[in-house]
Write a structure and sequence with these properties.
mainly alpha, 2 domains
């Protein structure tokens, strides 16, 4: 299997190790990293991260994003927005 452009063997042990990671430490490390990035680089840090993701996606699929994938993405966002609105409405009526 290929994940993020790298070969990955999905063994039971690998999946269990991933499941049992110290997710609290992963979260704390990410928060510390982004706090420092934002402190030192300001909003540019977020723009640079977005650009890096764009470049990675284009490296995996030079045709990305296609009109069809953009349309599917828009439809997904519209549906998610509608679901969140229904949840918010339901919570507001309690």
């Amino acid at each position: 299997m290929i994940a993020c452009g790298m070969p990955v063997e999905l063994t039971r042990e690998a999946l269990l190790a991933f499941r049992h990671r110290r997710w609290d430490l992963v979260r704390a490390a990410k928060e510390a990293y982004w706090a420092e990035e934002t402190r030192t680089r300001g909003p540019v840090a977020g723009f640079a991260a977005g650009e890096a993701m764009w470049q990675h996606a284009r490296a995996l699929d030079p045709a990305w994003p296609s009109d069809a994938s953009r349309q599917a993405d828009l439809e997904h966002h519209v549906e998610m927005c509608a679901r969140l609105r229904r949840i918010a409405d339901g919570l507001a009526r309690r």
